[in-house]
Amino acid sequence: MHMADALLAPGVAGVMYACSAVAAGRSVHKLNQQPDDKAVPVMGVMGAFVFAAQMINFTIPGTGSSGHLCGGMLLTAIVGPYAAFLTMIGVLLIQCLLFADGGLMALGANVWNMAFYGCFVGALIWRTFTRKGLGRGKIIAASLVGCIVSLQLGALSVSVETLASGITALPFGAFLLAMQPIHLAIGAVEGCITAAVLVFLYEARPSLLWQGSVAAGEKQRLTLRGTLGVLAGAAVVIAGGLSLLASAFPDGLEWSLQRLTGSTELEATSPVQAFFARIQEWTALLPDYNFAGSDAAVGTSAAGIIGAAVVLAVVILGVKLLKKAVHRRGSSAQSH
Known about the structure:
11 helices, 2 strands, 69% helix, globular
């Protein structure tokens, strides 16, 4: 569901940057209130895992389309909505800058569409299902409902943002009717994947789940380090190997565009779009998840592993720097 710049007018893109920035600022503030940094390595590893998982496009049978994990609901169920939102920003930022996945001008919209709903609406759904305790059935139900609802809201936002931009000839009604059903199917598959991961964590280390707990003295099957090791290893295997099995069909957004225009991409025409495209050309060292000008499998594997490692580093270092900056600002304010 990564939007390209060609779908957005600069004004709409700016509004979406502002909306995402407000949500990010609130998330930094809330995360800084946590008494320790135990969530930070979990955010980094899970960010790498979500990045890797997003590389695997799964085919939606009978449609000629594909989808991939968004990850907001999965992250929220582990680290809570605020940490999850910041982690998703790290994932989407690296995808945009390093791999040219989604437009740079459209990054604010992509953060909103792919992260805000999964993290914050997903949190409400997770809390509703698990407020009286965790269980396999509750986890599965929350995952399915959360992923489906967040994908539907994201698809709706893409359609509304495109309509508000008014720079394409896409008819709103037809675009919406193409986007919603295909993302309903994608959301259902994402819900199954999310449920599988969360049920594994529930069995291995239930205290890792948001609002999860264990009785005093009760042993968990894996240590925190062991659990993170499994997830990090899975990220490497997925990014470096399983990503080669990704579906070649266009994703839900591209498929919808193709049905209405005959092409999976629209041409950017404004000078502002061209400006952001030039910046992205400079930063995208691994365009389309491969070495520039190559479509070799080894390039895809290398790009996946590099990307997962960069996301891990960016999330951990970024969050630590943000927390230090907020702490210094608070200390400075108190001294005055």
